[in-house]
Write a structure and sequence with these properties.
Layout lengths: L7 H16 L4 E2 L1 H10 L4 H8 L6 H13 L5 H9 L4 H12 L19 E2 L1 H16 L7 H10 L3 H8 L4 H7 L7
Parallel strand pairs: 1-2
């Protein structure tokens, strides 16, 4: 199947993301967990690419941006801006919800009691990221799926992770330029 085509570092990202999801108390593995695992790696193409783009140096900023998105119920900045255009102030909604229900009330991944957790399962969006990495590898003419393909897939996924990566200089184009084969395809 697909996992057999993953390189060692890509497997480490997938397996590490399960551990990161457990550490953070999440029920499912998300794109965020894949990214946080990549940020923990050293000596891989992905680690080199993230360092070359300066993302490693701005890890605290990246994590803060992800935390802000959690506080906004997982809405990206562009989604929040779209709601603002309709007259909905997300910050006011969050403040009111937290006032009534406590901090993190709108967190998109609420914790369940331990016995109900399905630890290690992948959220649909994270599964799609894995599939997208396969397509990206094929488009680039690569037989194996590496961590770099997972990173490229994250840059194209809709939502908070790709937005935060782009805000920190990691777009599909900037990542692809740093990888063997050069220009994005």
């Amino acid at each position: 199947m697909m996992f057999e085509r993953f390189t060692r570092d890509a497997r480490e990202v997938v397996e590490g993301s399960v551990e990161v999801s457990r550490r953070t108390g999440a029920d499912r593995v998300t794109d965020e967990h894949l990214l946080l695992t990549m940020l923990e790696q050293e000596g891989t193409r992905t680690a080199f690419t993230l360092a070359a783009l300066g993302v490693h140096d701005r890890r605290a900023s990246l994590e803060a941006a992800l935390a802000r998105a959690h506080r906004r119920a997982g809405l990206s900045r562009s989604e929040s801006d779209a709601l603002a255009g309709l007259g909905i102030d997300i910050d006011s909604v969050v403040a009111r919800a937290e006032e009534n229900h406590g901090p993190g009330a709108l967190h998109p991944h609420p914790r369940r009691p331990a016995k109900r957790r399905r630890r290690g399962s992948f959220a649909p969006a994270a599964k799609e990221t894995l599939v997208r990495s396969l397509r990206i590898a094929a488009e680039r003419g690569d037989r194996r799926i590496g961590g770099e393909h997972l990173l490229l897939a994250l840059t194209t996924a809709p939502g908070v992770v790709s937005e935060v990566l782009a805000d920190h200089g990691a777009t599909y184009q900037s990542v692809a330029r740093l990888l063997p084969g050069g220009q994005p395809g």
